[in-house]
Amino acid sequence: MGPLAGLQVIEVVGLGPGPFAGMLLADMGAEVVRVDRTESVPTTEPSAPASFPHERGKTSVAVNLKDPDGVAVLLRLVEDADALIEPFRPGVAERLGFGPDVCLARNPALIYGRMTGWGQQGPAAGAAGHDIDYIALAGALEPLGRAGQPPTPPINVLGDFAGGGMLLAFGIACAAFARAAGTGPGGQVVDAAMIDGAALMMAPFYLARARGGWGPRGTNMIDTGAHFYEVYGTSDDKWIAVGAIEPQFYAILLDKIGLADDEDLAAHQWDRDRWPEFKSRLAATFASRTRDEWCDLLEGTDACFAPVLDPVEAPRHPHHQARGTFVELGGVLQPGPAPRYSVTAAQVSGPAHHAGADTDAVLRRAGFADADIAALRGGGAVA
């Protein structure tokens, strides 16, 4: 039973960050009810099981939130919930009739989690945007990439998932702790903005840049500027990664790859002017063998080495298999719950469900009679 067992969460479905936050909470034992759009409900019996990782461990009720009767259904669910995840731009939920004031009036102990890109206040709050925009304004995109090249967007993990969904899940868990401990209000609003979360991820780099300790993109120790912290190609057109920062690990790396006798490399690790030259030497060395050959030589040593695996290869690696890092659910291999606990073990509580698959069961549990459910479905409020 996970550490959040007993926490009842309503997740109004939106784009990636909200469902990711709901998945994290469900993995930790929370009971998460996904409120899907009625138009998302399959019109025929699905021929394949639902399999999207962000939907695992949740039940689904399909509600038309543009219909006042649908909003009334959501508010009924809110009455018994501990938390709500709301993914719309500022003002949309209020306009539809289930903003924080309305929901907290129904349930004063509710934790109302708001997931947005720009946040609830500020000149950009009402504008559209995506991960790339949020991390750009946060100062998190400009440092990413190689010297002399444009900034490189790191897919949408920094803003949407780390800076957004994970921040919201953390915020809801903190608010739940405060409520249980009596150190905070019964219910409250959690304003989780991706721009804030992306800024938090960059905390040490703002200081380093302000004090002159962090140079232009791609010229620093851990952003591909240094030869000992880089990705190198192999003879079979694959890649390996090295991160031998500490002198003792750097020495092991040079020894293992046959360059310990190169006095320049050994004695001038921190000579920034020579990093490009040294990088060329390491590149030529690593290009002389296959990735598997380097794995045989370097994995398990203190050379700070790893093969660069793609998402299909990674789950098959012996380390992941030994730890059970990945789980198979609905025929799909996906990362399992994390972190791990010694007592309150987190686990995937069940497979993903198709939109609306649990509408009747969820509504009955909320106190709706079968006749009420039939009337709501006939009017298009639920599906």
Explain this structure to me?
- This protein is α/β, with parallel strands linked by helices.
- The chain has two domains: 8-201 and 326-378, Crotonobetainyl-coa:carnitine coa-transferase, domain 1 (Rossmann fold), CATH 3.40.50; 229-233 and 239-307, formyl-coa transferase, domain 3.
- Helix content is 37%, strand content 14%.
- It has 15 helices and eleven strands.
- The protein has helices at residues 17-27, 68-79, 92-96, 100-106, 131-137, 157-181, 194-201, 203-210, 247-256, 263-267, 275-286, 291-298, 318-323, 359-365, 370-378; strands spanning 8-12, 31-36, 58-62, 83-86, 111-116, 188-193, 229-233, 239-243, 305-307, 326-329, 332-335.
- Strands 3-2-1-4-5-6 form a six-stranded parallel sheet, sandwiched between helices. Strands 7-8-9 form a three-stranded antiparallel sheet, with helices on one face.
- α1 (17-27) crosses α6 (157-181), α5 crosses α6 (157-181) and α5 packs across α7 (194-201).
- It starts with 7 loop residues before the first strand and ends in a 5-residue tail after the last helix.
Give the overall pLDDT as a whole number: 95
The number of helical runs is 15
CATH level-two architecture of the largest domain: 3-Layer(aba) Sandwich
Radius of gyration: 25 Å
Number of domains as seen in the coordinates: 2
Highest CATH level, the class of the largest domain: Alpha Beta
Taken as a percent bin, the fraction of beta residues is 5-15%
Give me the secondary-structure category: alpha/beta
Spell the H/E element sequence.
EHEEHEHHEHHEHHEEHHHHEHEEHH
Give the low-confidence spans. none
Strand order of the largest sheet: 3-2-1-4-5-6
Helix % is 25-40%
Shape: elongated
Largest sheet: 6 strands, parallel
**Number of DSSP-assigned strands:** 11
Q: Identify the CATH homologous superfamily of the largest domain.
A: Crotonobetainyl-coa:carnitine coa-transferase, domain 1
CATH topology of the largest domain: Rossmann fold
Give the N-to-C terminal Cα separation. 31 Å
